[in-house]
Amino acid sequence: MFKDVTIAMKSTRSPILPLALCSLLALPASAQAASFDCGKASSQVEHLICTDAELGSLDETLGELYRRALGDAGGAAEALRAHQRDWLAERNGCDTTECLADAYRERVAALRIRVDGPLGPIKERELPGGEVEILQQGPLVELKAKYPRLEGEDVATTKANRQIATWVRQQLQDFRQDYLSFLDGNQGDHLGPPWAIEIDAAHSYAGERFWTLDFTTYSYTGGAHGAFIHQAQVFSRDQGEPISPAGLFRPGSAWLARLAELSYARLSQREPFDSDADHDWLRTGTAPEPDNYQVLLPLADGLMVIFGQYQIGPYAIGIFDVLLGYDELAGVLNPKWFGD
């Protein structure tokens, strides 16, 4: 850090310092941290960089990262230079420190991907209560997951826990691969806002004959908004095997028709479906089709049916759920799991 100094000058002609020297001395000490000589700053952007401590530091950091990335680029060096020229053209369109700071932070993060790698280390730990947390933070991507461990050391519990952990890790790995493919498609550069995924368990229930887990996944890969989905996982307590949605019901029963009838009746009485609006979207999303009833959560008080984004209406209405009492489903439930 440079300290302010007082310069005394003796002159028989004039006490006024030369204009160029005055300009240089007027710049804050942080200006010297820029990647170029602030004494030769000529454009508005350069002057903004040289008079702002954060911008000066960002410019110096970017310069160092660019030199390192260029040294490692090999045959991709010319493409990297072209990207840098494009970015400089965009940067030079800024006329405020806020605009410049945003541009620099985005470019620094993109160059860190090239220099330090895009994903960062994976950190895993067990939380109080037995939950497992997985974190991974890259310059422009973040992965988070948290999932419970079922209590017990028997074969069935161990098997179910292994399948839960495998599923969560596979979701994260798929996201990583999508992100790396995205970078490959852009010659290693991250274009646009940061990516993120977060997995958590929203509902869990331990019944006498099964375990129920509702995993929620939020992911953002650019665009106007992210995606939020539910994934039901139900396991038998005797074998630790997954139970499919159809497996919850008596073979040969009209379970889809029953779910469709009850779900439509409940939802049509709730906002925004209780108006005189056209219900075609709602009818389609609750129709007795297997794809409409993939997120089924058998809980203590009944069977929760979850309808995802865009399933029964536009994005703005969000996600809906309906809790159906077990008495309403009498005759179609599988007695193996729910008794006679």
Automatic annotation (TrEMBL):
Pfam families: DUF3298, LprI, PdaC. GO terms for cellular component: extracellular region. This is Uncharacterized protein conserved in bacteria, putative lipoprotein. PANTHER family: LIPOPROTEIN LPRI. The keyword Signal applies. Residues 1-33 form the signal peptide. It comes from Thiorhodovibrio frisius. Residues 248-326 form the DUF3298 domain. Residues 40-111 form the Lysozyme inhibitor LprI-like N-terminal domain. Residues 139-226 form the Deacetylase PdaC domain. Keywords: Lipoprotein, Signal. InterPro entries: DUF3298, LprI-like_N, Lysozyme_Inhibitor_LprI, PdaC, PdaC/RsiV-like_sf.
